Amino acid sequence: MVVLAFVAASGCASLPGPLPDQGAGAPGGLPSRVELSDVPFHAQDAYQCGPAALAMVFGSAGVERTPGQLVQQVYLPLRHGSLQVELLAATRRAGLVPYRLAPRAEALLQEVAAGHPVLVLQNLRFDAFPQWHYAVVVGYDLVAGEIILRSGGERRLTMPIAVFDRSWAKGGRWAFVARSPEDLPASADEAGYVAAVADLERVSPEAAARAYGTALRAWPANLLARMALGNAAYRRHEPDLALEHYRQAVRAHPEAADAWNNLAQVLHDTGRHREALQAAEQAVATGGPRQDVYRATLTGIRAAAIR
Fold first, then answer.
1. CATH topology of domain 220-306
2. What is the chain's Cα-based Rg?
3. Which residues form the signal peptide (predicted)?
């Protein structure tokens, strides 16, 4: 059986894709004004903008946490802040998919327009003497030239687009959304989303299985998502469901030796020996970096046929 494997600290004390200037039209047919007033607000304690921002995006995704509950997971006292990687890891532990946005203004606006608050990293000072800060974008008004944030102690902070854009650019335009496994980010691309789900699978396999299903609804031919669901069904001792996924995988990707190998194994386990032998031979004929695994599967199936 083949299982596919798939920084700066911020204390609260130019790249491609700048945001549109005041009065400019919204890109991609997006609305010119959006505000997500239902996003919860948590004021930050000293240096703890990371836990506060995380609690806000969690709440919007239906996971209730207080900043105090998240401090131990993400706050590093010696750094007086939180690492980006810790925010992403805490999101996975909450059973949510942390999807990193492309460093483009359109991706940020797409998510907000879809009702998804965006956690962003800003540098509020200078490159040489940075003041890193996490905030949550909850709206924009391209006519007035403003971005609307939950930030620090302010529930509704409006910031001129140019000022926000400079601070965000100095933070590398780093941003992510935290979404439930059933909710595809508006700006998601196939490879990036499936990679985010693969990272979630290491922490929360059940949530990841639901997210892989979301990926397949958007991209039905995605091999990694299909294989992951087949592997998950196999681990749960659901051979018929595993067979269904592996059969779909080889139909869509006849060049995928891993799929042929796993199909052969499940066919063998369920007593379909002739089909198992054919699938195992196909895996070996297709070849690839796991040829030794394919040959071992074929050898085992042939040996069982002799007994």
1. 1.25.40
2. 23
3. none
149 φ/ψ angles, rounded to the nearest 5 degrees: -130, 155
What pairing do the DSSP bridges indicate for beta strands 97-100 and 118-123? unpaired
Query: By C-alpha distance, which of 264, 82, 305 is closest to 174?
Result: 82
Question: Do 117 and 136 contact (CB within 8 A), yes or no?
Answer: yes
300/281 Cα distance (integer angstroms): 12
Q: Which residue has tokens 């039209």?
A: 25
Neighbours of 304 (CB within 10 A): 12
On whether the CB atoms of residues 234 and 250 are closer than 8 A, the answer is no
How far apart, in whole angstroms, are the C-alpha atoms of residue 148 and residue 113?
Answer: 13
List per-residue pLDDT tens for the chain, 307 residues long: 654 443 444 444 333 456 665 555 566 789 999 999 999 999 987 668 889 999 999 999 999 999 989 988 886 665 656 778 899 999 999 999 999 999 999 999 999 999 999 999 999 988 778 788 999 999 999 999 999 999 999 999 999 999 999 999 999 999 999 999 999 999 999 999 999 999 999 999 999 999 999 999 999 999 999 999 999 999 999 999 999 999 999 999 999 999 999 999 999 999 999 999 999 999 999 999 999 999 999 999 999 877 6
Assess contact for 135 and 117: CB atoms under 8 A. no
Neighbours of 241 (CB within 10 A): 16
Superfamily of domain 9-179: Cysteine proteinases (3.90.70.10)
Taking the model in full, what pTM does it have? 0.88
Domain ranges in the chain are 9-179, 220-306
Distance CA 274, CA 266 (A): 12
Which burial class, exposed, middle or buried, applies to 170 when counting CB atoms under 10 A from its CB (0-12, 13-18, 19+)?
buried
